Task: inverse folding
């Protein structure tokens, strides 16, 4: 049950359409649903404003299908699935609204929220190889009701490409900067932007990139103010955090 459902329930009580006892019974429903393979947090939207997200990696297509349908039957109408393989997407039982985003290996059951904030989230990648992580971030942010702008392949090896987008950088409310190799993009963007920058190191790079560790350490050591860092390849975490920041002004 999310905040809108609670509000509707209270309005029904106020109008006399639902008894107080029935309303209490609904509110006392278990805060999680045990389906043997998972314990689904059905009260997360009520606590945090966003329902449970399904992490698809490591789950079988059947497990993903069952979890998503259980959340749908419980009333969640925007269910994000991250790290979902094309095979799992093809096997999904499509008796509910379903859209798969292959570039970000993500899917949405139900529908992405319409943008409900004026602010803009800008996603910038150093290279084309970073796009899968960027698209995971983008789908996450769009599902949570944000306007998203994408600028891809503008890394420091040709910094003039990035500088041609200065207007977009200055207008953004939140920026997600995604890079592998040495991860220098985040510091450059942080030195230009007037808004929070969320840096995402990716596992792209040759031997001494160490699967993204070099970019991670570079971003953690950024001398630019206002740069925060999420884990390697964690596009979802960046998109979720960017959405929270973008909605803060609207919630005042």
Result:
């Amino acid at each position: 049950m999310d905040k809108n459902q609670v509000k509707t329930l209270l309005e029904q009580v106020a109008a006399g359409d639902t008894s107080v006892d029935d309303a209490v019974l609904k509110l006392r429903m278990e805060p999680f649903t045990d389906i043997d393979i998972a314990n689904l947090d059905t009260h997360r939207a009520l606590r945090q404003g966003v329902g449970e997200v399904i992490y698809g990696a490591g789950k079988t297509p059947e497990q993903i299908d069952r979890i998503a349908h259980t959340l749908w039957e419980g009333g969640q109408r925007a269910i994000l699935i991250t790290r979902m393989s094309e095979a799992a997407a093809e096997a999904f039982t499509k008796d509910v609204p379903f859209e798969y985003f292959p570039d970000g290996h993500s899917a949405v059951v139900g529908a992405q929220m319409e943008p409900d904030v004026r602010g803009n989230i800008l996603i910038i990648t150093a290279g084309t190889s970073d796009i899968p992580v960027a698209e995971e971030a983008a789908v996450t942010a769009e599902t949570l009701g944000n306007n998203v702008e994408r600028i891809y392949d503008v890394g420091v090896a040709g910094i003039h490409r990035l500088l041609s987008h200065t207007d977009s950088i200055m207008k953004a409310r939140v920026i997600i900067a995604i890079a592998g190799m040495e991860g220098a993009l985040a510091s450059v963007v942080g030195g230009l932007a007037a808004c929070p920058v969320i840096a995402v190191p990716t596992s792209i790079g040759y031997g001494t990139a160490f699967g993204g560790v070099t970019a991670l350490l570079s971003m953690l050591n950024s001398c630019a103010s206002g740069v925060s860092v999420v884990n390697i390849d964690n596009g979802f975490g960046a998109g979720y955090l960017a959405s929270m920041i973008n909605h803060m002004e609207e919630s005042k």
About this structure: DSSP finds eleven helices and eleven strands in the chain. The radius of gyration is 20 Å. Residues 9 and 26 are 9 Å apart (CA to CA). The domain at 120-248 is CATH 3.40.50.1970 (Rossmann fold).
